[in-house]
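Researcher: Here's a chain I'd like modeled. Treat it as a single chain, no partners, no ligands.
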Amino acid sequence: MKFAVFLDVISNIFIPCTVMFTTLRSLIHPGNGVILSTRGLKSDLHIKWVRPEKIACWDPKKSGDLSPLEPLDMTKPPLEYQESEELKTANENVRKVFSCEFMGRRYATQLARQQLIDKVKSNNLDFTSCEVQIASMTANIRNLQEHYKLSPRDKNSRVALKEIIDKRKKRLKYLRTWDYKKFEWLLECLDLKYHPHPPYERVERKKSLRRLTSQWCDEVKSKKLAEYRNELDNQKEMFLKQKLETLEWAKKEEIECGVEPTITDDDIESARKQLEEWKTLKSIQE
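Model: Modeled as a single isolated chain. C-alpha cells:
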C-alpha cells in the first residue's frame, strides 16, 4: 500500500516536469521561429575582441622617451679630464689611454648626462634644481633602456630602471603643478612626453565588446552615408539639367499666358552656372 502511494507521488511530480522541459525545448528549437533571450547567445556582428598588449613600464612608449640616448663618443676623455691642457698636447697613445674607450663606458655615459644637464641648467652652479635632476634621470633611463635591450634577463637593472622612471614622473608632476611654462620647455629640450597616471579601469571583455559594437555601428552609418552621398552626386548633373529646362519652360509658359513672369533671367543664369561649375568639378575629380 505504501509503495503504491509512493509511485503516485512520483508520477505527479515527474510528469509535469517532463511536459515543462518538452515545451521549453520546443520553444528554443530554431525550427519553431521562437528564440528565448538567454545570456549565452553570441552576437551576429563580425567583431572580434583581442586583449590589448601589455606594454612594459621600461618601454620608451610608456616611459615617454621619444628619442634614445645620443651616440657615445668613446674617443673623448672623461669628464674630469676635459679641461686638462697637458692631455690636449699629449701623445696619441696617452690620449688613447685616457679616453672613454680605454677607461670604460660609464665615463662616456657621464659625458652624455652632462650634455643633457647643460641644456637645461640655469647657471654653472646649478646642480640640484628640479630640471637638472630630471635631465640626469633621463640620461640614466635611456642608458638603462639600451642596456636592458641587450640583457633582458638583468632583473636588477629592470628594477632600477622602474624606480628611476617613477622618480622622474614625480619630479615632472611637481614641475607641471608649479611652473607649467618651464615644464613644457623642459619636455621640448629633453624630447620627452609626459604620461599622467591614468585612471584605473579593469579590462573586461563585455565592456570592450560594447565599445567595439558602438564603433562598428558608427562605421556602418558613415559608410552608408558616403554611399548615399555618392549616389546623390551621380544624380546631381541630371537634376541640374532638369532644373534649368524646367525654369526655361516655366518662364516661356508664363509669357505665353500673358502673366508677369516670376522667374527672372538671373535665376536661369544661376542654374546654368551651377551646372557648368559641377561639370568642371567632376572633370577635375576624374
